[in-house]
Amino acid sequence: MIEFRPLKRLVRVNTSFRRVAFAAVCLCAASAAAHADNIPGYHLGVMDKLHVRVAEWQTAEGTIRDWAVVSGDYTVGPSGSISIPFIGDMPAMGKTTDEIAEAIGIGLQKQFGLRDRPSASVEMSQFRPIYLSGEVQNPGEFPFAPNLTVLKAVSLGGGMRRADAGQRFARDFINAKGDAVVYMAERGRLLMRKARLLAELAGKDEIEVPAELKQLPQASALLASEKALMDTRSQRMKTQLQSLEDLKTLLQNEVEALAKKNDTQSRQLELAKADRDKVESLAERGLELASRRISAEQRASDLEATLLDTETASLKAKQDINKANQDENTLHNDWQSSLAKDMQDTDTELETLQLKLSTSQSLMQEAVAQSADASNLDPSGQSVSITYTIIRDDKGQTKEITAQENTQVLPGDLIKVSTGLAIR
Predict the structure, then answer these.
(1) What is the structure's pLDDT at 286?
(2) Is pTM, for the whole model, over 0.85?
(3) Which residues cross the membrane (predicted)?
């Protein structure tokens, strides 16, 4: 048997007044919940803590009963649910407090077969925490409060990271900057080489200069060097292809000449065979000498051998033409394979160089961020920039959001703070 206790001392008055009083209690509870949330349309997540209050208006008795056994504090667990007495596990992650309140009332009404649905109010007692990482003095987990911005969150972590007293990083900065300058020059050369390879693969005669290189002082020299190399390679390729084309033309002429010679010898062979047959016929009748017959046979045999040699030479010339075609295809394929390999090697070198450049830039950024003399490190006037990134879980999907100092932070957000330095 569930024992209910009244919220306060109840006074029996007319039914209309009691209903107004009950509505006022529910309105106050809802107002408190809205004030606590202070985030329009906020959806619950793991580690959010809720305060639940449940009351029931009993029409028959005209009284208000307090469900004290159900009221209390609840935490959204790792499974995304809260455990309510008599109802059991109730999904909460992704729902609003109003949806949870309605679900509790419906669940209790069904469980006990109540005529009147209990009224539940759900308010946030504590939001799930936020997290700070990167260039902050004290990274870690911090409690969330409504109207929290990125700048306020960073202040919870003690502000930007500061160096220990007495540390000097000018030498590290100078060394890292020297490496970065060398890497940037090498990167420009590789980017221009990649542009030349792209032009060769596309069969173009001109190199399209990458946009990031157009403003560099050495862009013209890099372009002239790669253009000279491309012209040399192109000329060599054209020369080889022209040699194969000349060979095919010569062989084709040879095939045509052999075909004409073959026709002439075929006609001569036909005449020789006719003469041989005539001599054989006369010899059989004793009208022709045997020597004459032998001579006719020898002439026909010689012509057949010569015709066979001509056909063999023609086949050999045709085979050489096919080989020249194969050599031409092989030359094209080797050219494309060479370009593809050069492109792959260039991309690999660019990736390796980018890692080295990123390391040098990170060392420079660290020196600038930690040095007390950061403003004097770079005489060229380069400045430090601070970048904020919010990692947020959105309906089970993690997304990165570029943020500003006044960007609103939501419960559960991870704020990454990083410093940057422009390399000229």
Answers:
(1) 65
(2) no
(3) none
